[in-house]
Amino acid sequence: MKTFGLFILLSIITGNPILALGILLLLIFILDRRYIGILPDIMGPWRRASRVGQLRREVQLNPANADAYLELGETYFRQGKYELAASFLKNASGKMSGHPLFHFYLGASGYHLGKRQEAKKEIEKAVASNPKASFGEPYYYLIRINLEENRPVEVEKAFEQLMLYGSPRVYYQAAKVFLNAGNKDKARSLFKETIDNYEACGGAFRRLHRRWAVLSRLSLLTMK
After folding, report:
1. Nearest CA among 224, 216, 163, 222 for reference residue 192
2. Which domains are present in the chain?
3. For 14-48, what is each residue's pLDDT tens digit?
4. End-to-end distance of the chain based on CA atoms, in angstroms?
5. Which of 26, 37, 92, 222 is the most buried (most CB within 10 A)?
6. Which of 204, 201, 202 is nearest to 34 (CA)?
7. 147 vs 105: CA distance, rounded Å
């Protein structure tokens, strides 16, 4: 009701309902990015594209810059461009061997490219180097791989590690994997962990993780 009232007020001030709606949507977006964190970041793709361009120029000028290759690999991975991610990561393999994020992104990219066994080896290298790498995301992939291979003991080990090192986003994503696999108990515990972890956060971290807490609450409501 307050939002509708604001729309009416803006319409009166501007004399143009379409302009008023545009201003209202802009205000909602700004408030969400500052305080709530539910809506997608519409400027994110532009920022990522700008950063990718900068990094690609960097590796052209300095092919030995392994950090730039790693960041490119991570960026392309997050965009779902797994072949490009793997390609740039492999260019850094000489200097990045043993780096947990290098092994994680290379392994996770390989998983999406259908190279499950190679992926598993790389991801295991990542957690061996740093169990906290990428806020527990490697364990999410190990859970997926071991579920697909029907290895319940390995699934349980990865689940236990995930509970120690995960973040709200990773807890939620892993919960969905277990739910799709028919394991409602583990899914429910991970949805609850998502909410508990979110509620333990403060300041900007609550805004960052709020989306996953909201989705987890909705998921719990729909579970029988």
Report:
1. 216
2. 1-30 (no CATH), 43-133 (1.25.40.10)
3. 777 776 666 656 665 665 556 555 666 556 677 87
4. 33
5. 92
6. 204
7. 20
